[in-house]
């Protein structure tokens, strides 16, 4: 669902895929190859939201802010399922883990990783390549080259997903039994722990 608000319409690049069950409202600018999943709410009613090329905002995420603020998700930012970004700026190629909460006026430096369920309090600033976890969240170490390579590989899957959705996603009636020789998705990308084995 795409909504105009106070005469401002979202600007969405034609290669970006916004799931029909997501809501994008008002002053929102979305770049190339962005994926926005079902249940995501991106509310540019009180300020501007810029989502740069190659980002993904996954299922049930919320992106919002206090009045008069512009926030940016920089290129290739990866916002995991259920995360909340409220009035914070997310650096280039950052991973925000599932159900993390990032509060107002916070800055997450490029190539940082925010752990799942982390709570980043308002006005927090983290330098690039920070591994951030906890409640309240703290930097526990620097993100290694190996970790950022793993993250980048995962984000590439999401950068391919918009085109796959345009080509193959469609509403359907379910099957009533499993068909013989049903294909299984490839396991080309592995969890962090599996990738280290």
From TrEMBL:
CDD domains: LbH_paaY_like (cd04745). It holds the Pfam family Hexapep. SUPFAM superfamilies: Trimeric LpxA-like enzymes (SSF51161). It comes from Ekhidna lutea. It comes from the Bacteria. The lineage of its organism: Bacteria, Pseudomonadati, Bacteroidota, Cytophagia, Cytophagales. InterPro entries: Hexapep, Transf_Hexapept/Carb_Anhydrase, Trimer_LpxA-like_sf. This is Phenylacetic acid degradation protein.
């Amino acid at each position: 669902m795409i909504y105009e608000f106070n005469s401002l319409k979202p600007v969405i690049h034609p290669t970006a895929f916004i799931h029909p069950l997501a809501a994008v409202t008002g002053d929102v600018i979305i770049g190339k190859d962005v994926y926005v999943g079902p249940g995501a709410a991106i509310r540019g009613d009180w300020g501007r939201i810029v989502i740069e090329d190659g980002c993904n905002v996954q299922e049930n995420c919320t992106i919002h802010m206090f009045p008069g603020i512009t926030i940016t998700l920089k290129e290739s930012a990866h916002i995991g399922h259920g995360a909340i970004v409220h009035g914070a700026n997310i650096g280039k190629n950052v991973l925000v883990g599932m159900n993390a909460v990032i509060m107002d006026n916070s800055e997450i430096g490029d190539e940082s990783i925010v752990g799942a369920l982390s709570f980043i309090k308002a006005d927090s600033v983290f330098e690039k390549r920070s591994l951030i976890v906890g409640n309240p969240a703290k930097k526990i170490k620097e993100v290694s080259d190996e970790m950022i390579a793993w993250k980048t590989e995962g984000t590439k899957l999401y950068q391919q997903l918009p085109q796959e959705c345009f080509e193959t996603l469609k509403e359907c009636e379910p099957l009533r039994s499993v068909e013989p020789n049903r294909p299984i998705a490839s396991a080309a990308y592995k969890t962090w722990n599996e990738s280290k084995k």
